[in-house]
Amino acid sequence: MFKKFIPFLILLFAANLNAENIESIFVAPDVFITSKIKPSTEYESDRGNILFDGHEIEKKRKYSIGDMLKDLPGISSKGLGNASRPIIRGMTNSRVKILQNSSGTTDVSEFGEDHIVGYDPMLIDKIEIIKGPGTLLYGNNGFAGVVNIINPLVAVDKPVTDENVEANFGYTTSGGELKGSIKAAQSIENFIVRLNASGLSSGPYDLANTSNKQPNSSKFMASGGVGLTYNDGDNYIGFSFDKLEAVYGNPGPEGEENMTSLNPTKNSFNFQSSFSLNTAYFSKFNLQGAVSEYNHSERTGDGNNHNINFFSDLYEIKTSLNHKSIIDVNSEGLIGFHFQNYDQGALGQEESHLVHTRTSSFALFALESFNFDLFDLDIGGRVESVNLKNTSMEKGFFPGAFSSTIKKEIFNNNSVFGGFDFTQRAPNAVELFANGPHHAQEQFEIGDSNMDVETSYNFSLGYSYNNGLDTFKIETYYNYIDDFIAADRDGTTTLVEGEDMNDVNFTQYNAIFTGLEVGGQYAFAKVNDFDFISNVMIDFLKGYRTSNDKALSLIPQTKMNFGIKAINENWDANLNYFHYFDKEFIGPFQTRTGGHSRLDFDLTRDFNYSDLSGHLMFTASNLLDVVGRNHLEAKKANVQLPGRSFMFMLKLFY
Fold it and tell me: 24 pLDDT exceeds 50?
């Protein structure tokens, strides 16, 4: 596996690096901030939105996206070892839409915790977590929120320099992980070419308080892409292509029969364009499309004798018009049309788990922004037709959605905000049609073809303070879901080739999610040119069934963290303590999970020398070497979180 990585490292350090100083050639422009119709400098002050970027994202790079985000307020992660998928406020799978540069992307992570999100973390510049009206741009499977992974190969903003190169190399002691990436861009008048490539290779990761390693946790990933854009400052049209290859194992105890390895491959083609319009009513016409093809093979069982293939292909087109003010209080708006087609299924031993299904949807959506004397209001609506079809059955649904956010600056630097969302989601292929084993998770999953859409009535209320380095935000929410689609064990098992698999039934009942998120920081001292800043975060969530007040399955642990930061123009140092509380309010046939703590430290030194700039980064994770388990880990009894590890990283900009 390591041999595959050597050519990439040679390319990384042999590149002819000759360009202007710039922090990053792929810094995402404001237009990617899609929670509002136009860019917002107060992005994080609305409805639980988060912009995850800069040094923070570099310190948290993990093999799959869920683990990168799990310490953020309102975000958790479910998975199986190397694989993880984000949860937003207790909801996951088809309720969380994952995008690539605001366009659709595809994998099969929503159908099983053993599947990675098909994007390379080494190439991510920013991640947006979007809630509220902006989610209506993307489909009924943005039910809980949207995770927008940003690394724009298409230059939607005019570049500030003609040529740039960025190189990144890192080493982590746990598993001997090597990783690196390179990005390059060249502009010729109004044409811009962008290239990127990356690679990662690691052995099994280290466990806490022992010299042992987690069996079957090795991993490898390589990816690259190219983009070509014409951008004259007012209009742009661009194309990009990227490819990912990976190999990883699903952890388990040494000698366990069901040891699984997977080798996902994904190819994506994206088209993006925007044209300025000089008309009385419209200011911009936008057109984008995506084709994404994903597949992986699984080998499970003694001697890896089960060969299972999953595939997921996406075809998407979206067009929209930005309109000018219609009435005095209407500052702007957007109307659009969205088409998506998914072709998904499993071949071999798990055909009955994910039956070959085509899912097509057509939607109309609109977003409007209003500025009244007393408050600002964003509202949006979406109507959609969703059709799922396999060889034996066809189901049609018509989910609708309405979302609103109201915001008022009560006095300088202090704002209050609230929101109401009515959103519906159509069931996915597994929830409807599954009737077979999922070997990697040792489950026999049984769908229900009579399911209806699930409907959410969500209320949120919050307050934010933002004054330079001092910030504070508190938000609470109450989410009642009618016909919530649950995946619950019933205590029985099904014998599959001599192995008892837990029966998991997809059923519907009414449920409530309620939570509180608190976060902020305070600059309490300044010594010489260093600012010393304290920070705190609390994330509480409860999910339960309304008929009996019993817990829902797969609800994240309550968590908190606090820390201290010292920062100046060149240095950035952080010491953070994280605590995940005991999880005792649990769903059917789940087991209690004990709490655990983690102490992390990181230090970054930025530098500039002639035409060279960049930074050196050192991180120490789980300094106390505490044994921890994720309540949402599919095999938490056998799979621990990593023990103490150290990472060294060098990033260069030319």
Answer: no
